[in-house]
Amino acid sequence: MKKSFLFQQSYVSVKQMVEVGQITKIFAVAEAMRQRVEERQVYEPLKGYSVAILFYQPSTRTFSSFSAAARRLGAYVTAIHGMQSLSSVSKGESLEDTIRTICQTTAADVIVLRHPDDASSERAAAVAAVPVINAGSGVAEHPTQALLDLYAIYQHQKRLDRLQVAMVGDLLYGRTIKSLAALLGLYKKNSLSLVAPEALRAPTAWLGSLPKSMSVQEYDDWEGVLPEVDVLYMTRVQKEWFEQAGRLAEYEQMKHKYVLTRHLTEQMKPSAMVMHPLPRVGEILPEVDSDPRAYYFKQMRLGLYIRMALLEMIMKP
Ligand code: NCD
After folding, report:
1. CA 208 to CA 95: how far, in whole Å?
2. How far is the CA of 235 from the centre of ligand 1 (A)?
3. Pairwise CA distance, residues 28 & 229, whole Å
4. What is the 167 CA–ligand 1 centroid distance (Å)?
5. How many other C-beta atoms lie within 10 A of the C-beta of residue 45?
6. Is 25 designated active site?
């Protein structure tokens, strides 16, 4: 049997996806997972395996879907939320020592990690005896979210090339957009409109890392962009990073610069989709939820299938 390209590999960055065939393969496994879940099939290829899930930052979707994914596949799951305050991290233990500890105490076959440091997943992978999956690292990456986002786009638009994608909001601190943009760059003729106030623009170094084949435009205003897009990817202005940087006053000024209303949604193409990694904190009004273009609730279910696919592909040959 040909081994999965992810077998016994860490998944710490979207940079590991170098050709679209890899993504197609993950989607095919995710699709099989979807079918099993919808049919309530019992499918437990990870029986006897151990999955450790460590979250140092808040989470609802990523944490619950990873836990559900591992349990559905039959694994023993140790899922710890609040690492920062409730574990020995609060006594000063290093990430490296915590990872070594968890490998020992849970006999983990894989570690899923969310952590505020940009390089956390790489640091963890360097000392872990088993693969590490990045469930969000600092302001840099959210590679499993990017796969589920891309999967959502594929489900709705039936293609992953020739797409006009607008990313709106906090492009400085938001990590989901960075991972998703990189994956979109693997496909042909996608164009990216980055909409943000001056202070929340995407980092220049990161912009420079995007494939040159992808057209990228920056905007301060979104009125002209909305009627053109196939995908409108909204994001939350990330209060926690402003707080840390002592910039709370600026956050208050910018938090509602872009608010999607029903009126604005109606200016979009009927075939367009509105996405959001969630949580939303005012940037999409609830009145948009019933619009057929609203995709953000369907989007998160796909996270369960993608994470099931990744866990199986990493642990089973
Ligand atoms: C995002 C994250 O943690 O980066 N949430 C998620 O995982 N769906 C987005 C956010 O917190 O704004």
Report:
1. 30
2. 9
3. 27
4. 14
5. 14
6. no
Predicted pLDDT of residue 264: 98
- Average pLDDT score over residue span 196-203: 96
What pLDDT digit, counting tens, does each position of 55-75 carry? 999 999 999 999 999 999 999
Which two structure tokens, joined as six digits, stand for 92?
Answer: 């000063």
Q: In whole angstroms, how far apart are CA 50 and each of 16, 88, 96, 112, 280?
A: 24, 21, 19, 11, 33
Beta carbons of 231 and 166 less than 8 angstroms apart: yes
- 178: annotated active-site residue: no
Pick the atom of ligand 1 nearest to 170's CA. 12
Q: What is the DSSP string of 2-47?
A: PPPTTTT--B--GGG--SHHHHHHHHHHHHHHHHHHHTT----TTT
123 is a catalytic site residue: no
Residues at CB less than 6 angstroms from ligand 1: 59, 61-62, 136, 142, 145, 175-176, 236, 238, 277-278
Active site residue 61: yes
pLDDT of residue 160: 98
Between the CA of 114 and the centroid of ligand 1 the distance, in Å, is 10
Give the list of residues 6+ apart from residue 229 with CB closer than 8 angstroms, or none. Answer: 164, 165, 166, 193, 268, 269, 272
- What angle (nearest 5°) sits at the alpha carbon of residue 178, between those of residues 69 and 163? 90
Q: What SS3 class is residue 120? A: helix
